[in-house]
Specification:
single chain; alpha+beta; 9-stranded antiparallel beta sheet; globular
């Protein structure tokens, strides 16, 4: 009799634990989804405030994963933005995502009208392994590290003392904000690329960084 009671008690504890865990998963799914939707809406709004597009088109990336947007802005062939957020709605996968280095990521790609004859990358020190170009391209680029605001900033460039090298070196204060991970100018595609780490508690700062980058592009990159 005692063995039967003990077995029933153990089964009850396991069942209760499973019910509690399932409840936590459901709550985290709804909380995480709502959190991601709030971030997505905030970033879409700040992009429109910062870029002032003439026209816009959004495509959802599925559920609460993020979005892809195309903006029509005077002076550019096209401007494309992509936001991907970490899976807060999935309590089981979220730790794996963080271990793999995932973060709320905003990428903006400006397609420039005029030709570009230099390639340059500005990369936050800790992000160099994530964003470094492929091996073949590395061999054709020079690399220099700069200490700025107690951080290491990497410059990868095709022309030392070239126009873009001088512009990036002299405009670090304008371009290098707390959210920035990577800037790239690629001649083959005629693009100016921005990659930011989105911090939901500092959206206004991110908007100012994007405004500063756009001002830089319009002043120095548009023909």
């Amino acid at each position: 009799m005692e063995l039967v009671q003990s077995g029933s008690l153990s089964s009850g504890v396991v069942f209760g634990a499973l019910v509690l865990f399932s409840l936590i998963l459901v709550i985290s799914f709804y909380w995480g989804g709502r959190r991601n939707l709030k971030i997505i809406r905030s970033v879409a709004s700040l992009l429109e405030d910062a870029l002032h597009p003439i026209d816009k088109q959004y495509t959802w990336l599925g559920g609460t994963v993020g979005f892809r947007a195309s903006y029509r802005i005077k002076g550019f062939r096209d401007v494309v933005a992509s936001l991907t957020v970490v899976p807060r709605q999935s309590l089981l996968y979220l730790p794996v995502a963080f271990i793999r280095g995932a973060y709320d990521r905003l990428e903006i790609l400006f397609f420039l009208e005029g030709p570009i004859d230099e390639e340059i990358h500005l990369i936050r020190g800790r992000e160099i392994k994530r964003f470094i170009p492929d091996r073949e391209r590395i061999n054709s680029l020079d690399k220099k590290s700069i200490e700025y605001r107690d951080e290491t900033v990497w410059l990868l460039f095709s022309k030392e003392q070239g126009r873009l090298y001088k512009l990036f070196s002299s405009n670090l204060q304008r371009l290098f904000g707390p959210a920035l991970c990577h800037i790239a100018v690629v001649p083959e595609r005629g693009t100016f690329y921005l990659n930011y780490r989105v911090r939901s508690n500092d959206i206004s700062s991110l908007k100012e960084e994007i405004r500063a980058a756009l001002k830089f592009i319009k002043r120095y990159m548009l023909k």
